[in-house]
Design goal:
Layout (H helix, E strand, L loop, with lengths): L19 H26 L6 H6 L7 H22 L11 H11 L2 H14 L4 E7 L5 E7 L12 E7 L6 H4 L3 H8 L5 H11 L2
Antiparallel strand pairs: 1-2, 1-3
């Protein structure tokens, strides 16, 4: 059974960037629903024993189109939010360090250039979706965005996401209204770069 990610911080811990009401609604309502629905559909499809990464990477194994689409959406919502919530924390480092910093500098030029590029992908995503930094099988870093609850795994890229910005309106609308760019700009203040660095190193093994 898929277990909902439990926050290691309080709902109000990320204020003033992300308000407590948004965090509580996002985690206890939206994410809880994705998790519960995923478990129900995965049981019906006979794939409840799989881990989420394998399940999303092999959606074509599910012959029933309705179940396949449901698992793609709810499994994506489960996976995406697990990552999103896990890379945020109060009182974080303001920028990456160590091996991740070296790789990001080599790939994007510097941290500010990375922020500019991924912010453009996040703000430019039409409608609901996500912006990603992922690790390729060769250990390179790539940026992308995706609609709805798709991600680099379900889209078949073979890349491993290590950083995610949620640009569904429920992630920011209570505080930022329709100003997605303002939310994206503030989001970097609560990124746990130590965690992202750990995910980078794990993906490169």
């Amino acid at each position: 059974m898929f277990q909902q990610y439990q926050l290691p911080y309080a709902y109000d811990a990320l204020e003033p960037v992300i308000d407590a009401t948004t965090m509580e609604t996002h985690h206890s309502k939206h994410h809880a629903t994705y998790t519960a629905t995923l478990n129900k559909l995965a049981e019906e499809a006979g794939v409840l024993d799989q881990d989420i990464t394998s399940l999303l990477a092999n959606l074509n194994q599910i012959s029933d189109e309705k179940l396949r689409n449901g698992i793609r959406n709810n499994g994506g919502g489960f996976y995406n939010h697990n990552l999103y919530f896990s890379i945020m924390a109060p009182a974080c480092e303001s920028a990456p360090t160590g091996a991740l910093k070296e790789k990001m500098d080599a790939t994007f030029g510097n941290f500010d250039a990375f922020v500019e590029k991924i912010s453009a992908l996040a703000t430019g995503q039409f409608g609901s979706g996500w912006a990603w930094m992922s690790v390729t099988k060769d250990g390179d870093l790539v940026l992308s965005n995706s609609a709805n609850q798709d991600n680099p795994i379900s889209l078949g890229t073979g890349n491993t996401p290590i950083f995610a910005i949620d640009v569904w309106e429920h992630a920011y609308y209570l505080k930022f209204k329709n100003l997605r760019a303002a939310y994206v700009k503030e989001f970097f203040k609560v990124v746990d770069w130590k965690k992202v660095g750990e995910l980078y190193e794990a993906a490169c093994k």
